[in-house]
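Why should sequence recovery work at all? Because a backbone constrains its sequence more than one might expect. Tight turns favour small or flexible residues, buried strands favour hydrophobic ones, and helices have their own preferences. The token representation captures these environments compactly. In the example below, the structure is given first.
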């Protein structure tokens, strides 16, 4: 099949041939979008034989998305380091001894120049991140100019600025912000072992403000922070039972940075790196439980083999961050990604195609 044919024909193959087994708590694959998942059902999905799990995830992926297409997004840190929060994984926390230099909010012109370069390199979404607990009202005018400027270039906009009030969400919605990223990060139970300066419920409140303002929600978390399987079940459960699923679900593999609480705690232990198969399982379960969402294979790709990434795409991941850098840590890089896309026959998702997906999800 040519590249063009591949883009224009939404593959349905496999959807009718799923092995249905309704004998236990493990739900059979189907194309309905559900918000009433139980932890037992999600745990049963994690327990499936790996090939069965990936087959179900791939089948569901084909019912809602065009296989082989992957959305490319570029990240830019617009305000780096010196963050008052104590997220144990993060080198941008003021408490981390990672040697990262704290910077002020960068100017709008620099942001727009970087976005233009990202667009030239094929990126269709530009995500701007700030190391803040929350934006201050005095920051909002510059933030709004950034959103408007990037949108005018024809790129989708995403921001991650910490907690948002109803009013700030509304202002960003009026500026035309397409997505807001705010992660729940992990299960409600594991959360307080990782972050103490804001609660799981604080996160949900921001997500509700974003949702109510009409901005698309991007929310996911990190795998490999020393959490248990049960925590990964709880993490997916918390997202999949939101009143409306996040349109985008980033699944990050922890990038263990020296000088951070978790980077130092997990170094030289068997927990230092999440097992690849368990990571793919998490992607597959996210795909099955949130069939219409974009599942984003986010941080951690730099140290992930092509084979593991290929399994993630097979299991339903359909979005990545490109470029040499995420916000502050390394990323796979455009050359490595181009080679991987060529080897796997993947193509970048066109903006129009993604819009179709979003409409279908509504
Ligand atoms: N300050 C904002 C916030 O926390 O919402 C925005 C930026 S923050 C860096 C965005 C997300 O990146 C975090 O919620 C976390 O899930 C992810 N992240 C941060 N550091 C990471 C690391 N070392 N490895 C993997 N993911 C990480
Ligand atoms: C998300 O879940 N992953 C991206 C995005 N949201 C902002 C960020 C990952 C950051 C990894 C650490 C860093 O580079 O600073
Ligand atoms: Fe701050 Fe965000 Fe890092 Fe937490 S994850 S320390 S809020 S920049």
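From this structural description, the recovered sequence reads:
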């Amino acid at each position: 099949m040519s590249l063009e044919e591949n883009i224009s024909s939404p593959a349905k193959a496999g959807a009718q041939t799923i092995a249905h087994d309704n004998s236990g708590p493990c739900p059979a694959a189907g194309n309905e979008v559900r918000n009433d998942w139980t932890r037992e059902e999600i745990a049963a999905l994690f327990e499936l034989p790996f090939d069965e799990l990936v087959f179900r995830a791939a089948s569901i992926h084909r019912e809602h998305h065009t296989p082989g297409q992957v959305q490319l997004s570029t990240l830019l840190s617009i305000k780096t380091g010196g963050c008052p929060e104590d997220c144990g994984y993060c080198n941008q926390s003021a408490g981390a001894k990672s040697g990262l230099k704290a910077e002020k909010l960068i100017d709008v012109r620099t942001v727009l120049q970087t976005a233009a370069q990202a667009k030239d390199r094929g990126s269709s979404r530009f995500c701007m991140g700030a190391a803040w607990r929350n934006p201050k009202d005095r920051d909002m005018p510059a933030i709004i100019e950034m959103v408007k400027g990037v949108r005018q270039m024809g790129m989708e906009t995403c921001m991650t600025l910490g907690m948002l009030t109803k009013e700030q969400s509304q202002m960003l919605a009026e500026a035309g912000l397409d997505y807001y990223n705010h992660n729940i990060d992990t299960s409600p139970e594991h959360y307080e072992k990782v972050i103490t300066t804001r609660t799981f419920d604080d996160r949900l409140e921001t997500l509700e403000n974003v949702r109510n303002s009409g901005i698309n929600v991007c929310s996911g978390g990190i795998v490999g922070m020393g959490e248990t399987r049960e925590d990964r079940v709880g993490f997916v459960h918390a997202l999949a039972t939101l009143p409306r699923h996040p349109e985008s679900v980033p699944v990050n593999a922890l990038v263990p940075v020296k000088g951070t609480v978790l980077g130092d705690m997990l170094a030289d232990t068997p927990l230092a790196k999440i097992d690849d198969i368990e990571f793919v399982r998490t992607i597959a379960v996210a795909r099955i439980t949130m069939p219409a969402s974009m599942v984003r294979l986010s941080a951690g790709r730099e140290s992930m083999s092509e084979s593991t990434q290929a399994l993630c795409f097979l299991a339903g991941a359909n979005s990545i961050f490109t470029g040499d850098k995420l916000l502050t840590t390394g990323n796979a890089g455009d050359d490595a990604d181009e080679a991987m896309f060529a080897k796997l026959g993947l193509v970048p998702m066109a903006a129009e195609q993604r819009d179709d997906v979003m409409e279908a999800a509504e």
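A few observations help interpret the result. Residues 50-64 form the longest helix (15 residues).
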